[in-house]
Design brief:
With 298 residues, the protein is of the alpha+beta class. Helix content is 29%, strand content 24%.
Amino acid sequence: MNDAQPHATIHPRLEQALMMPRIAIESTEPVLDGGRFAAKAIIGHPVNVTSKIFADGHDQLAAAICWRTKEETTWRRARLKLLSNDSWEGHFTPTQVAGHEFMIEAWWDVYETYRYELSKKHAAGVPVHLELEEGRLLLERASGRAQGETKAIIEDLLHRLSTAHLDDERVSVMLADETAAAMADADPREHCSQSPVFPLEVERPLAQFASWYELFPRSETDDPNRHGTFRDVHKRLPSIRDMGFDVLYFTPIHPIGRQHRKGRNNTLEAGPNDPGSPYAIGSEEGGHEAVHPQLGTL
């Protein structure tokens, strides 16, 4: 007789649910069409990032922006700040004109959760002997993970904690901003979740804003019987600049078809020298990849 107990099986849906992240990261900005297109940023200007971050339970959360150029393999990070109602905000400043990408990381902040609960109990006058012992153990575990200056700070905190005579002194050590900062550096980032990676195109400053001036190069002539050329356009550039425009753009400069060509003032009968509509592209001289011969060359 076989007394072996059968192995418990987990329903596939339950197993899938258990593998899902505990922390939700939603409504991240700046994002275009769910990340299908790249948002725009300007080199040297802070990129403000916002997101909705929440989780089940009452644990405190921490979050960071991670960013890099598309050619880089390592992420740079900056902490996000909780505003209110699950809204988080932070920023980073790109230093290269290049394609970038960024994402959000969020995790359970074990020490901040402890710090929050300790402050509430202490303020209410509840005995906190056990909570102080719990905090000491958190510091010891963090000391084992930490390195360099952070490790030295935590070891000093442990010494101060052990030499304090009153619980109020120990509580002050555990709630100090210095302690919180050192523990943040040594945070194991439990249940760390990541958002999708979003594209960001970082441009030069001139791409931030521009005034555009449209010009019909075939009409840039001082003689109504002569076709305008690119050289004629060159003469207009100073006056266009002085009007405050940054960008000059042309109506199509490709060869124009001759069949059903329109004449002057949009008449339906064209003379032999009428230029026609620039949007009727295509003739024996070429199509969308050619330049109308009378304009000159690029």
